[in-house]
Amino acid sequence: MMGNSLTDEEKTEDELWHEFKKTRSSQIRDKFIRQYMPLVKYVAGKVKTGMPDSVEYEDLIGFGQFGLLDAINKFDPDKNVKFKTYAVTRIRGAIFDELRELDWVPRSVRQKSREIEDTIVELEAQLGRTATDAEIAKAMNMTESEYQTTIMKVSGTSVLSLNDVWYSGDDSDHMSIGDNIESPSSLNPDVIVEREEVRKVIIQAINELPKNEKMVIVLYYNEDLTFREIGQVLNVSESRISQLHTKANMRLRAKLTSLRKGIF
Predict the structure, then answer these.
(1) Given a cut of 50, is residue 263 above it in pLDDT?
(2) pLDDT tens digit string along 139-179?
(3) Model confidence over 17-70: pLDDT tens digits?
(4) Cβ 254 vs Cβ 175: under 8 Å
């Protein structure tokens, strides 16, 4: 007579997560890795969009595997967060961590990006509202056409800055704007209040973006569309979506820089 014990294949995913939390079974971990590898490939494909040819898709998959393993080891099935949503943030974060380590972004591009962000911070502090492209260009002694060309150069080589870690509650916990647009990861109780305040500022900053930039951010992070798919929705080119995404990144980062300096 057969026993009543179920094999791993017969158990529900929720049952497997709770068993893994208790036992740390390598067999269950390997099953989750196989199950969610397509998610790593999907995220790597999204990150590859708009990257220079020197960034290899296979390398991004390799970086993302570290994030998947980290997500599997740290996931808490008792929290009201789906693993897929939690894993996407970890996978994407691991990819960007590795890209930053490689430091492949040209120094001149990084410097120009910082100059634009600093200009936005100063200008919006003076204006008390969102600055227009024309105002930013004037403040940088550029024509608006030159400013748009600069944005295109930055967008073609910059790591998606919404995923840059900009705030740490402690040494083991970090967050990015992208984390907040998606879903909250596990929170240290000591930083919940701070994070909620930051989340409010981020939501306010997104709502203050020009209409097209806001639409790109919402579609990219909430709806998980690629730049090409967003371009089809808005009936503009993929490169134009990349440009709008970069401008939105810079505006949001400028808002949070202002927050850190106590302007908000």
Answers:
(1) no
(2) 999 999 999 888 887 776 555 445 544 333 333 344 455 55
(3) 999 999 999 999 999 999 999 999 998 988 887 576 778 889 999 999 999 999
(4) no
How is residue 223 annotated by DSSP?
S
CA atoms in the 13 A half-sphere facing the CB of 48: 18
**Rounded Cα distance, 206 and 200, in Å:** 10
What proportion of the chain, given as a percentage, has pLDDT over 90?
Answer: 29
The residue whose two tokens read 């397509």 is 38
Secondary structure of 40-59 in HEC code, one letter for each residue: HHHHHHHHHCCCCCCCCHHH
Nearest CA to 161 out of 207, 221, 210 is that of 221
What tokens does 141 get?
A: 């002694």
Tokens 């208790």 found at: 22
Separation of alpha carbons 146 and 68, rounded Å: 41
Q: Which of 154, 250, 180 is nearest to 210 (CA)?
A: 250
CB-count exposure of residue 41 (10 Å: 0-12, 13-18, 19+): middle
